[in-house]
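Can you please make up a whole protein chain along with its backbone structure tokens because I've never seen that pairing?
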Amino acid sequence: MTADPISDRVDDVDEARTSGRQKIDWAFEHMPILTALREDFEASQPLAGETVGMALHVEAKTAALVETMAAGGAEVAITGCNPLSTHDDVSVALDAHENITSYAEHGIDDVEYYEAIDAVIGHDPTVTVDDGGDLVFRIHEEFPEKIDTIIGGTEETTTGVHRLRAMDEDGELDYPMFNVNDTPMKHLFDNVHGTGESALANIAMTTNLSWAGKTVVVAGYGYCGRGVAKKADGQGAKVVVTEIDPRRALEAHMEGYEVTNMDDAAERGDVFITTTGNRDVLAARHFEDMQDGVVLANAGHFDIEINLEELGELATSTREVRDGVQEYELVDGTRVNVLAEGRLVNLAAPTALGHPVEVMDQSFGVQAVCVRELVERGDDYDAGLHDVPDALDKEIAETKLDAEGIDIDVPTDVQREYMDSWRHGT
């Protein structure tokens, strides 16, 4: 069975299209990078004749990227990468574009989710754009005959890159993929500021609780965890970091945070935020030691970081105490509150809008130029996982600086020669 485009499945298409269009236009007003790229793409048509298949969080900022791809001449088919992050009105507005088909719909089940991904694959994409890896893995596992006509793809998030790297090491990744997640522009801005700000904002809006005075346990001190810890600390919380990597643990310690293991932190935390991309970060042995009324949220990727199956087995009752807050009451009366069903709290919470617009402008700008690079120079890249060429990452930074009216120094010829040569002594 194949999914139908979302416009065939909503009651009031015109109302949804108007609402979605307003959201997309607002996003574009604050996305100078994609605005500049869209103008350039419209003029040069670098994606003419290509079909771009996408599995992303379908909301207004993503729509700006999708429309930039279409402006460059591409046919685009898109669906969601998380059943709870789709904004149906934005999906309908995208589907109204003559060169875009959107299958994304909020709240679909697992069967419908993969039917939508299969529908995107049915468009025979020549380029894939992924968040979490489900699209590229589905192609390899279920539609390997499509691979020969795929130039390459991009992957945006940590979880997807982990999976792709394992796939590449096993010799199972059969077309080139750009690792957008590990570019400086992604780490320094999207992960640190985007995840940090949006996760805390959506937890606060969902719970109506203050950060001041809370003990916030941040699981994982990668770039996302650093951002969450930094922003929580800035709002008056006491931050405790848990880690499995000794260098990251030491970094957190040297930056002034308490560092411990989760077994110890479980007894003391008021709010737990997972940012690891791994599974079972919070499990039965932790739930049993938690204080009454704790809040659990995931800012990683998939809904596996908090083991909800084990929490459900421990609970004597569950109920929704606020929109987006599920309370689990344990045998001893302890109440454990889980936000957004353990999915990405900054995208799946009831009020969630994802990362700030300006931050996603930078990340999606990198995605756009990576797609352009694959179309123009795809033959230069063998099958496997590739770093994004540094010149592309710098191009996006320069575009942003230009939009902000910020000037930086330019090295002289003498300075360039000095830095590039090994012949100069001390």
Remarks:
- The chain has 17 helices and 15 strands.
- The longest helix spans residues 184-207.
